Amino acid sequence: YMGNKSEGKNKLIMAAPSPANASECVKVMVRIRPMNQSETKKGCLSVAEGDKEARQITLKKPKEVKDPPKVFSFDAIFPQDSLQRTIYEESAFPLIESVLEGYNGTIFAYGQTGCGKTFTMVGSKDESAKELRGIIPNAFTHIFENISSFSKEKRFLLRCSYLEIYNENIHDLLEYDDEKKLELKEDPQKGVYIKGLTTVIVRSVQDIEKTMDGGASNRHTAETNMNKDSSRSHCIFSIYIETAETKADGTENLRAGKLNLVDLAGSERQSKTKAEGMRLKEATKINLSLSALGNVISSLVDGKSSHIPYRDSKLTRLLQDSLGGNTKTVMIACVSPADYNYDETLSTLRYASRAKNIQNKPKINEDPKDALLREYESEIKNLRDMIANLAKGGGIPSDFKGIDDLRKSLQEAGGVKVVEELKKSPPMGSLKVKELEAEKESLNKDKEKIANELKAREEQFLSEKEQRTQLENMLKGLEKKLLFGGQEFEERQKEEKKRYEEMRMKLKKEKMKEKKLREEHQKKEAEKLAVEKQYKDTKEELKDKSDLINELKIKQKNSSKRDN
Asked: What's the Cα-to-Cα distance from 501 to each of 83, 172, 417, 496, 506, rounded to whole Å?
């Protein structure tokens, strides 16, 4: 926040780039939405002006000529005419690339109700208006495009979950039950997590869109005077991306990134929304959780707080790692340009300006102990071994075609040889009656034994066949859940592949530029230290010589006195 003239004149100073393993600030950007119909009908004046190049927003107080405008600086400014695609490329693209490298990432929109948060995050659901898609659906396409660009040696497992915080209760939007409230838990390894939250494995953009649409239909929304489709809950759609790659030396490299896409409910003033009954209760809970979020931000940046109040709300506990923890975080503050909303816009900008100073310490999550991909690959190997062992040790010929083949193999082994010999028994006149009866009884017993053995072998085979079929189906099911690099990208998304490749090259150049700036900065710091040390040494040398000269002068003076 640069302040007004009465607060002193400040200059925007670019901070020196920090090393890759050091902490980094939360990236904060501002989007100014266009005037809506209601504001236009009221004859509202525009009091917020964004300068994209200077990355500043100027807020003028309505009808107050003497009060100088307030100027705020952020990481990016998106004026009223900004395109959804532009916002995605500048805010989310680098974050998604980092998540695919194994970092945790969070992006969330904040602001008063009706200022465009959900449109920024979700956008239009009209399939014919792809240019109006928000950050979340664009992120889906980006992730799967990225996977398709890798080699086949790289394996991926993608899962997603979707939850809402409604009236300070956590609900699973993928298996919705209004009566079922999920619990927040904490684990030394996992950190904060939700017990019993549904995660769905996805293999395509269609899979993940279908999952999100199903969950979104369960979200609490309602109409207020400020917004026709007002979100009455905070929502977090999370994507878990696990990546495995076999190195040249045969070792496995496993990484796990997590992307949190957060759509916060907006802060509300009852005098404007005219909320009553349940809507008023919802608004109270929303404002309390957003106030808790503000307190956490203030505690993180004031440098004096020994305690950060994450536990004051469910929202702040879930965002604990995103604010001051192991996550790369982007915040988009959405504001209205109308003078009618001046106070709310000023509050949002001050809130966002504080958030710029939050320091996170993101790191790549390598070899996570709870990786599901490792379990899947281990299970696939076990299934393959079981099927191979069943084929070898189970006595089932590799060219087996059915029960008749089993019968034939048993005959060749002599299993029903006696039965066939019964048909060729010698004439009854050549044997005594008792001997014949005894022989007959013995043959009948052998026949029964052989029949029972055949039946048992058939049942065993059928059981083994069924087991093998089940194992093969299970194996196919598990293999289908994994994705491999290099898989063909869908036809309708190929246009975007080229755009993403261009963005990736641009990002690479920016990283190289940042590295060069960092090296130059470090070099200048080293030179500065060297000059300061040299100056200090020279100064000390000069002082010593000056003291010596003074001492000689005193001695000479004393000597002159003695001579006189």
From this structure: 20, 36, 72, 9, 9
